[in-house]
Amino acid sequence: MRQPWRVAVVGGGIAGLAAAVRLRDRAPAGTEITVYEQSGALGGKLRTGELAGQPVEFGAESFLMRDPTGAESAAVALARRLGLADQIVHPTVGQAALVIDGGLRPIPGGTLVGVPGDLDRVTTVARPTVDADTDGGRPLIGPDADVSVGALVRSRFGDEVVERLVDPMLGGVYAGRADDLSLVTTMPALARAARVEHTLTGAVRAAQAAAPRAPGAPVFGTLAGGLSTLVEAAVTASGATVRRDAAVRELTPTATGWRLTVGPPRAPDDGSGSRRGGRRAELESSKVDVDAVVLAVPARPAARLLAGPAPAAAASVGELDYASVALVTLALPQPELPELSGFLVPSTEGLLIKASTFFTTKWGHLRRPDGLALVRASVGRYGEEAHLQRPDADLAATVHRELSAVLGAPLPAPIDGHVQRWGGALPQYTPGHADRVGAARTALRAAHPTLVLAGAGYDGVGIPVCVRSGETAADEIITALGGSAR
């Protein structure tokens, strides 16, 4: 008689939880699913908290409503599957701004993550090079090539378009630099068009046309109850056994699947080079046998786990670096805020803040009759982690001072505040990232088809991408186990 499958999902972020839901929906009845989460909290970068009696996101804020083809995004589909579709709400204010020369200017329309399809529309914020984007008689990039976004845009539109438009747009998402980030991974639609089109303006327009959006259709959504409700509903729907504070320290292939060495998280380094509690953790470790593993953790811990069974894959995965950020949220009594969703800050402005969101302006369901406003600022760029070593109070005071300067008037003193630090949170996809991940996955499929990677470290950031990554991993596991004699 066929025994129930046993599948381990290592990592309790949204990618891992989406994999668990897909396994429950599509794997044979009775499949045993266990989610191992090293921390005490599920959801990864999805974390809804409370400030001044108001729910507020301390991590990811929203999700795209559509995927690159124009179809419903994986995040919307998951919310629908979990019975949360009626909780999806949209921004009531969509216009954002850029900080240029110390003041706010509206972000021009018609761009693709800041890359313009019409140079005339961006002259309010940047002076493009107007004669460099010429038709050279061949596509912008080769069929298998990858370049940095900054290198491509600088060569066609000049430095100001990169520094004042593209860099802050990408920095708001990745906390990285356009000159370092892969076109293929961060802007796949533009990369596809660039393999056909001979000019960058033509490529932008082709990419936009490939994913048409109905006039007035919302771009972003969130859940009225907070994004943590998506996490909670996914845990329930998956029916998985969840083990919090459970660190998977080793993966060992067996004749029928995998053996996991699981134990409590190790204590932080005490500065002496040893970790307190290490001996206790070793004594409390246990061995668990499973048929398959979805490895939905960031690249560095994934590389450590892959080092034994798949050293070549580990080497490819381990090349990925991450940026750290802090999110500073202030509760301000009746401030005078512009009718904007927020603003982005080019690094050339010299501010600690790289982006800010006016939560209670942007999201109508969060507005309060007493006029209390929640304003969040993102702090930290790749390579500037030293700024994040400041105490919470210092970060909050700097954010308050810089917000006041940008808005041109002193803001009232906050009545409450919160600093959320996300260490190593945002992957930095350098050119060639997709090829490196593809090589790692090819090696795993050949040697260990029941071990599959999922998550932002491999497929891109954003809730829809992570959900799709987890679901795809689950489908691969089901396919791999479907031919088993068990």
From TrEMBL:
Its main location: cytoplasm. Keywords: Cytoplasm, FAD, Flavoprotein, Heme biosynthesis, Oxidoreductase. One of its GO terms (molecular function) is oxygen-dependent protoporphyrinogen oxidase activity. One of its GO terms (biological process) is heme biosynthetic process. Its EC number is 1.3.3.15. Residues 14-478 form the Amine oxidase domain. Pathway: Porphyrin-containing compound metabolism; protoheme biosynthesis. It comes from the Bacteria. Residues 267-283 have a biased composition (Basic and acidic residues). Its cofactor is FAD. Gene3D superfamilies: FAD/NAD(P)-binding domain, protoporphyrinogen ix oxidase, domain 3, Protoporphyrinogen oxidase, mitochondrial, domain 2. Residues 258-283 are annotated as: Disordered. GO terms for cellular component: cytoplasm. InterPro entries: Amino_oxidase, FAD/NAD-bd_sf, Protoporphyrinogen_oxidase, Zeta_carotene_desat/Oxidored. It catalyses: coproporphyrinogen III + 3 O2 = coproporphyrin III + 3 H2O2. Pfam families: Amino_oxidase (PF01593). It is found in: Cytoplasm. Involved in coproporphyrin-dependent heme b biosynthesis. Catalyzes the oxidation of coproporphyrinogen III to coproporphyrin III. Belongs to the protoporphyrinogen/coproporphyrinogen oxidase family. Coproporphyrinogen III oxidase subfamily. PANTHER family: PROTOPORPHYRINOGEN OXIDASE. This is Coproporphyrinogen III oxidase. It comes from Micromonospora cremea.
